[in-house]
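Hello Y.,

Per our agreement to keep a running log of every chain we model this quarter, I'm adding this entry. I've kept the format consistent with earlier entries: sequence first, then predicted structure.
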Amino acid sequence: MNQKLIGLLFLISFLFFNCKNEIVKPEVLKQESKKTEKQIPMVNEENFETFLAKFNRDSVFQISRVKFPLKVKEIDLESMVELDKNKSEFKERTILKSDYTKLDFTYPKDALTRELDRYTQKIKIKKNITVVEIRGVDNGIYSDFYFEKIGGKWFLETWKEQST
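Predicted structure for the entry above:
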């Protein structure tokens, strides 16, 4: 009888400790999963300056990061005289992938000091939109290039050419 009582106590304590562990395990798993979630970044966000450097030097990469067909706005020099007649001063042009020419936003050190075609270049980043502004110095250069971050990656969306 004594052995049955010891066996029964052993079985009850075994079940008791196993049941207690089963209750604790889900809490431990939840805590471990929270730690794992914090360590894994949600989206690998692309830095614009790093993107632009690669965009400038790699034509294959550049084409992969342009939203085609590209719709751009350009000043309509022919209708500038007729602006007083409520005509649009911009015309929209669509550029297909096959007609696209590689762009280069590398800003040379002499861009502001050269004798001809002097210009400044500013990069304005606002959340998921970046504008590269190119402004000439006494020469009529005036362009804005619009980039948008989609899925953590930057893409050229459009540009507005106002140079005269």
